[in-house]
Amino acid sequence: MSLTVGHVARLAGITVRTLHHYDEIGLLTPGERTHAGYRRYTDDDLIRLQQILLYRELGFPLDEIAVILDDPATDELTQLRRQHELLVRKTERLREVITAVERAIEARTRGIALTPAERLELFGAFTPEDHDAEVERRWGGSAAYEQSRRRVASYTRADWLELRAEAEAISRGLAAACEAGLPPDGEHAMDLAERHRGHISRWFYTCTFEIHRGLGELYVSDPRFTATYETLAPGLAAFLRSAIVANACRSGA
Amino acid sequence: MSLTVGHVARLAGITVRTLHHYDEIGLLTPGERTHAGYRRYTDDDLIRLQQILLYRELGFPLDEIAVILDDPATDELTQLRRQHELLVRKTERLREVITAVERAIEARTRGIALTPAERLELFGAFTPEDHDAEVERRWGGSAAYEQSRRRVASYTRADWLELRAEAEAISRGLAAACEAGLPPDGEHAMDLAERHRGHISRWFYTCTFEIHRGLGELYVSDPRFTATYETLAPGLAAFLRSAIVANACRSGA
DNA sequence: GTTGCGCCTCACCCGGCGTGAGGCTTCAGA
DNA sequence: TCTGAAGCCTCACGCCGGGTGAGGCGCAAC
């Protein structure tokens, strides 16, 4: 039940030449040859080929793949586990690139230009440490959330009306500033951002500058929030985020 | 404000030689040279470089990248969209490979052996139809969010305006029904809830009745959402939740 | 003014195949 | 039984995307 080069090549989606090459460099030597010299690949060869192709897809050079596969200390299951981990890491890296592109698109559609250097950094460099920070920011705020729930539960209708009026005033101010083309890091926008922060602190939970910045990120990254702001004025979500950042910087945070 | 080769190389995480190479083959010619012959890269050059690196990461040969980037019919935004789509496809492919490896691991740990040919097919060939269903089941929770991000990333300003108009119409209808004292489980309210669900499905992600009910809960439990609705009409958050529940029941879900 | 670093242009080299050339095997069909 | 088309074999050269010097100039600082 052994297969010829052509069969294997079609099965694996590679060329015959590639199999020849792997044979030449000793990476994958077919288990048998016919008396006429034809290569015949056994089941074990196919397994090895699959491993090779996976590591290749992951970017390993062929000689390293040979070392990895010929390590007598690791069996097939270990290989699979290692491959799995590498694959997962690769998807994570890809996700980073995707979000970078998404940000670039968002920035573009809303007319905010990143500096070219910023974009290169976004894409090229690795920033492993900001990842943890982001997760923290995202799920670490559960205390604030609890606080918020408790307070909100006791609000009367009058409270809601007051809250609503205040929120609307701030939103209107922001929308107006945004549509007027004011800079998000200008005095006025920063003041509005600070009012926004105060509003949250007063009505919901203690909103530190850090939490506030997290909210800003959320407004542009989570479409449900983005939509809320974009319906008030196009580009408002990003405008608000920038204003929040500028305001936090101004306060030395 | 132009940069030298060394600076650019460090920024982008590539070597000087690579930049020389790109200059040689005409893929990226620095905007200026000093009188001594030093390359000086402008902001535009950096933007182009970022695009180049993205396409390179996606596996395009350099000459094709040149063709893509020099196509006068496509602007930067179009490029970004195309890159985005390619990246998404690549992650999808990667995910397939991961599940294939996972299956191989499962089979191994349970002592069931796939035939080598099966494994090669799993890895190499395409199996599109079982893909969707299984991925759904597996990553179901975040799938909606992913979908949403993907779609939102490609929205134009006009899209946002349309979305906004639609959302406002629904909100106004809900607020009016609420203030008029209509029952949230009445025909009218249920119809509005259904329009709400359709709105989300159309613009963000496929919103099943179950997901919709989850959103309803969110609107009354998360103050950030509650506030949004309460500002439209007092009691609206709870009204909407009830309407959503009633609508889901009506549909037999 | 010289020291050190960064830049320049050749020019050769390497990995991972693609792409013939020239010749043998295999197998289906006439 | 013969024949032609695939498919296989072994050289052997070529291409892409750079790596890696060699040999020399430019420039800023001490």
TrEMBL record, chains A, B:
Residue ranges annotated for the HTH merR-type domain, each copy included: 1-71
Any Pfam family hit: TipAS
Source superkingdom: Bacteria
Protein name (database record): MerR family transcriptional regulator
Taxonomic lineage: Bacteria, Bacillati, Actinomycetota, Actinomycetes, Streptosporangiales
